[in-house]
Amino acid sequence: MDVMEKTDEVTSVGAREYLTFRLDQEEYGIDILKVQEIRGYEKPTRLANAPEFIKGVVNLRGTIVPIVDMRLKFNCAKAEYNDFTVVIILHLRNRIVGIVVDSVSDVMELPADSIKAAPEIDSVIDSSAVMGLGSVGERMLILLDIEKLMSGLDMGLIAAEE
Amino acid sequence: MAEAHQESGGSGDFDLSQFYQIFFEEAGENLDLMEQMLLNMDLETADDEELNGIFRCAHSVKGGAATFGFSDVAELTHQMESLLDKLRRHELQPNAMMVDVLLESADISRSLLARHQAGETGEPPSSADLVRRISELASGATPAAVPAPVAAPVPAPAAPVAAAPKAETPVVKGERQLEIQMGPLERLDQVDPVKDLFRDIAGLGEIVDLPSDRPNFRVFKVGTSSSNDDLLDLFAFHVAREHVLIRDLGEETNAASEAVSWSDDPPPGAPLAPAPGFGFFDGAPGAPAIAKAEAAEAKGAIKPAGKAPAQLAQPEAATIRVAINKVDQLINLVGELVITQAMLAQNSRTLDPTVYQQLLTGLADLDRNTRDLQESVMSIRMIPMSIVFSRFPRMLRDLASKLGKKVDFVTQGEATELDKGLVEKITDPLTHLVRNSCDHGIEMPEDRLAKGKSETGTITLSAAHQGGSIVIEVRDDGRGLSREKILRKARERGIEVSDQMSDADVWQLIFAPGFSTAEVVTDVSGRGVGMDVVKRNIAALGGTVEIESAEGYGMRVSVRLPLTLAIMDGMSVGVGDEVYILPLSSVVESFQVKPDAVSTVGQGSQLVKVREEYMPVIELEKVFQVPRFDFEKACDIMVVVEAEGSRVALLVDELLGQQQVVVKNLETNYRKVPNVSGATILGDGKVALILDTSALVRRSRH
């Protein structure tokens, strides 16, 4: 139901642009308007007692920004850091967060009718954070509600209510 | 603004002269503001908001002037205030004449103030004439035209001198019969409130509906002694001036009964045609051109006295008010500059001084200038504690007299400066503490005498710098805290306590939420009403509260706060490959330790003996789970830090140096990290975490 509503919302706005990136073999898409910038990976300052997928914090022109490695979060087989590793800096509603991905592929426009509701599947991703599946030719795009995903308690970016 | 000023003015126990400067600034601002509002005000549509705003300005100036004994200013502004009061209550309708007079008064007030500021030198500008004119206007008299060159000294309100006899509204004593036509109207009932006016305002006269020959017009017959202008002003709220036509029926009858039989046809003259109607109102102040002429005349009227406004001295502004976000932006930019400078300094360390001598000299200059700039910028935000302290004498006086106690109030260190943001936030907790001292600390005079103390109790409020923080103390010589009673109450509430607890720990109990209700601690009432809130507020500012008390002799509450929230002196320490920052203000000493100096107690908690004192050891490596790749190297440096009255020794790899760091909030984009109070950016652009020494000390207690 949730997913249907979201899809309707997309329809009403018409085609939206998505930034697509790769994690291992999977391709994901997020709303381009949430993306502030894309930059190379630099070693963050480690934070003690943080979950493994929170790599630490970096200095983004004077702002302290936490870095989440999506590959670790989504249990990808390997998470290497090399010259091609990129960080997508997201500008969410009330915070700035960087996510580490294998590579950024494209910015594409998806008409609403090419987005299908995602079936209920058991995965590491909170299913309510999946807006739907987009099909681009032969490729399947997992469209994430990145705002919802990053503000989930399991991301550890926000302290649980005490 | 006005409130703050009044508070400072209210502290009668102080030497008021220290507040003169503030008063002069605020009065000047208020007058400027008033002038601006007067100029922007649209006479016809002036709403309550505007009128109230203008009134408030005059009121603040008056209040201040009266407090400081500038009676001439107070008198003038008092008159302005009365006039404005009537305006805002709609007893009078604003007109250009009033605006002129008010503007003039503002000018005179300003020069009077300037004279006081300059030490009462020179001839005081005469305000008597203005005072008279304002009170005339305020008494509801017809806006007497500016006295003609003849300048009749005191034109009686009832019979004002007409400046331009032909154009002036004929003002007649006694009642006149008028026919008033209103229209074209969108809705006929739109002018019903006009009739209410006649009902509500005593002495205005009577109004009777007359039949109208045109559908969108209303015609009234009015018997009144008010002038046409006054009527127009009154109606202006409900119907535009242009849509009102007043005809004098010329019947000087006083008989209201005739009104019934009066049934002349309404005049055929079209109300929209301005010529006949406006010819009548030539003297109306509402007409802009005329108003200007009057204003010019008004000035002319003063000139003979040799007080041309242009020549009046303007008070000099020794300060400027700037939006706080501009200052904050400046502080942020300087913060970034400090980081850049630190980066340059770090990168230039390896350069050969013989080759790059000029560059290095330049960098040294940059270092010094940056530091100076930073200090100056930070000082912008600093304001003296006297701003806070000044509110207490009055409060205590009232409170003491209400409670029937005798209290002396002493303040120390009012000149101590503190960040503006902190000052605002510390005021409430301090108020609470001072009130507590008076309410619960100081005994009744007879009790004090019985205990051999002087009848009058003393409450001392002091502020002083101590290292990187400011310490504010509230002391009283009252009854102090009762250890037994606190312990008893704690047991009743199921808090675990023992008789062996140290005094300091017992006092901390009163900060427990809900602990502090009446009859808890003392016979009268709870010493700790809301103490938990006080503590929480102060902790939120990065400060701490400590209590010392001796039963029967008084108590002292010390509030320790950081001087500013934005920049602090830090000491960087290395653990493994990581760098952490310690607030320099909490660092006591550091030393190299031999492995055998550390002894273990119980389940592995370590103690180190420093100068005959054992203190707990905290290994930062373990607290922060620092990964270690080089197992050869051992931590052998200890840094003793002090927080919340206890000391712990932190075990680190190396000391990297001292530097000023710009404190950044980690929680803006992330959540709270245990034992970390914030983050900063190092010279190389990397982020380093700032340790929360208080949390580390608390950790060692458990």
List the keywords.
heterodimer, A: 162 residues, mainly beta, five-stranded mixed β-sheet, 3 helices, 14% helix, disordered N terminus, B: 702 residues, alpha+beta, Alpha-Beta Plaits, Helix Hairpins, 5 domains, six-stranded mixed β-sheet, 20% strand, elongated
Give a brief rundown of this model.
The complex is a heterodimer of chains A (162) and B (702). Chain A has 162 residues and is mainly beta.
Q: How would you characterize this protein structure?
A:
The complex is a heterodimer of chains A (162) and B (702). Chain A is mostly beta strands. Chain A has a single domain (2-151), classed as OB fold (Dihydrolipoamide Acetyltransferase, E2P), CATH 2.40.50. Chain A contains three helices and eleven strands; from the N terminus they run αβββββαββββββα. Chain A has helices at residues 2-13, 70-73, 146-151, and strands spanning 16-23, 26-31, 35-40, 54-60, 63-69, 86-91, 96-101, 103-110, 115-116, 130-136, 139-144. A six-stranded mixed β-sheet of chain A has the order 8-1-2-11-10-9. A five-stranded mixed β-sheet of chain A has the order 3-6-7-5-4. In chain A, a hairpin with a 2-residue loop joins strand 10 and strand 11 (139-144). Chain A is globular, with a radius of gyration of 16 Å. The model of chain A is unreliable at 1-12 (pLDDT under 50). Chain B is α+β, with helices and mostly antiparallel strands and 702 residues long. Chain B has five domains: 2-138, HPT domain (Four Helix Bundle (Hemerythrin (Met), subunit A), Up-down Bundle), CATH 1.20.120.160; 176-281, Alpha-Beta Plaits (2-Layer Sandwich), CATH 3.30.70; 324-381, Helix Hairpins, CATH 1.10.287; 384-562, Heat Shock Protein 90 (2-Layer Sandwich), CATH 3.30.565; 567-701, CheA-289, Domain 4 (OB fold (Dihydrolipoamide Acetyltransferase, E2P)). Chain B contains 22 helices and 22 strands. In chain B, the strands form five sheets. In chain B, strands 14-18-19-17-16-15 form a six-stranded mixed β-sheet. A five-stranded mixed β-sheet of chain B has the order 6-8-9-11-10. The radius of gyration of chain B is 37 Å and the shape is elongated. Chain A binds chain B through residues 44-50, 56-59, 62-66, 95-97, 156-159, and chain B through 332, 335-336, 339, 578, 623-627, 664-666, 668-676, 679, 681, 685-689.
